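Run log, item B.
One chain of 171 residues. Sequence copied directly from the ordering sheet:
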Amino acid sequence: MDLLLHIFWIFIKVNLLSTSGPASVGLLYTQAVPQMVSDSQFVQAVGLSSVLPGSDALQLAMYIGYAAGGIPGGLVALLGSILPPTLILLGVTFVLHRLRREAWINNFVEGLTPSIVVLMCFTAWKIFQKGSEGGWLSLLIAAVSMGAMLLKAPGRFVLLAAGLVGIFLYQ
């Protein structure tokens, strides 16, 4: 029971202190590694949740919860991930509906954007450093992936292709 409460609290905390699914990865990393999963398991979970359809954050939560506490752990992590944003969204929707014509609301959101981009880049670099043991091959895959994304290739296909290339290059 203590384990399930611990899992629930971690995902409540991550979802209250982060702004989006990708942005929560860095905070989740500090909370879950190495207490609940290893570095390599975390990197695999991020990759797997990015390839599968649906919410990356919820899939990552279920993976880590399951790794730590089995099926009950996965369900508790899912509940801890869904509950905070659902309650907050209901409250914010109520307030924004009343303030929707105020200019400062739009300015606030515009101010968040650059910070979120930096946070996502920092988190991606941290994951790349921890999960990549391939040296120049990893840098090559990263560069080709970036090029594909700049050419507007669908992200899921880029990740899937990189994984398939990894099967052959890292033998």
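Observations after the first pass:
- The helical segments are 2-17, 21-32, 39-51, 56-99, 103-131, 136-150, 155-169.
- The chain has a mean pLDDT of 86.
Flagged for discussion on Thursday.
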